[in-house]
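question for whoever is on the cluster today: can someone run the full assembly for these? three chains, 474 residues total. i dont have access anymore since they changed the login thing
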Amino acid sequence: MVRAAQQGDMAAFEELVARHRDKIYARAYSMMRNEEEAIDLSQEAWVKGWQRLSQFQGDSSFGTWMTRIVINLCLDQLRKQKRHRTESMEELNEESGGVERQMPAVIINPAAGIERAELRQRIDRALGQLSYEHRTVLVLHEFEELEYKQIAKVMECSIGTVMSRLFYARRKMAVLLTDLKKEDLR
Amino acid sequence: MKFQVQLVWATDDAKPPAGKNYKPLEPAIRRQIKALKWRNYFEVRRIDFSVPAGEAKKVPISEKCELDLKDLGHSKIEVVLFGKGKEVARVRQALHKGEILVPGGDAPNETAWLAILKRIE
Amino acid sequence: MSNQEEQLKLQAYLDGELSESESREVENRLAREPDAAALLAELRQTGEALAGFEEGIQLPESREFYWSKIQRQISAPEPLREATPSPAPLIQRLRRLFVPLAGLALVTVAVLVSIPSAPQENIGVETSLADSGAMVYHDYSAGATFVWLSYPADKEAVDNDEMDPFE
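^ ran it for u. tokens below:
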């Protein structure tokens, strides 16, 4: 199918879009947290994918290749948005670790007892509560399964920063999944 | 083919004029016209209609405006817009399910009118 | 365990990012420190909770509609040039009507002067506009074509509220 598309077969490319569209959209949605933006960016990724098809060598799966394209588009968009945003106090707090870093490790199995559907909703909400840096590092590590140095390269930061952000993001997710409030932690 | 045409008022005002019972445009269509710059959009009128294959249909949008839609086959349509009885625009293009064609123009007080033609089937 | 560096090392151990010797050090600590073991368990279980999250997400558009927008962008030729360049009025009108043109949805703008039949076949749209100030604009990503007319054309009538299109 990919080979046919590489030779200009539009119908074959359309079939590839149909097979992978949910995955590409899901990645964009995880990163952007906005349905419309995720749709636009996923479509832009497909257009770029078509333009660059000759570059796909088969080193990775086609789906993986496409998700890398959409991730880069999302990162570009997030960087543009960040330039126009003023950081809130909460985000500055997140950057320095906030209270979560000092929190004792009391969360035993954050997802225990939560139905799958409810868990998905909680994860969805929780992802929306992370800053774009923390959400991005979490998505790149947990969903895209990149190594620290790969994430550092993509996010243009140090490995140490990747590690801090990932740690914070994971701990915050654990708190949000179990509905703990900050007052309960002191 | 089945279509829907909505006459819409585009404005930066939060509400329609007093006495007018226009309802806010639904979010799905708002997303499709996101390129336009007004803050709010209100539906003035909505008409659903069908056009049999190869045929044409005239649809009045308001007292002054009328839309004539002809099916040209293979998802292609020709739309002629009449204002006060005179032809003001003729558009020939493919319109697939879910896509919209939006004739529009200025209205008083920096508002605008839109005739959002959407292909439903 | 309060040392941030030790916490991050624990995380790196979980993620397979440590060397063999560093991993052995962490394993020794895990055997001695229940807090460290508890934190490792929390990090692991959070990861397990996240697994599979994206599999449940579905694109909220039909196959046909989603593809039609992509296809149009793939097939789009070079943007049309103006028939008769009049940069100031065009830019002013565009700014008045549309949000800033930096987004990826904006591909083509065609300005047509008063030509009774001026087919624009190379963008898949043919238009003829009796209205001399009219514009055609495509937002490919939204599946939308805008035909902007200067009707009602009479400014005085507009100012006097004589020509309300909604009446």
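summary bc i know u wont read the tokens: DSSP finds six helices and five strands in chain C. The first strand of chain C starts at residue 106 and ends at 111.
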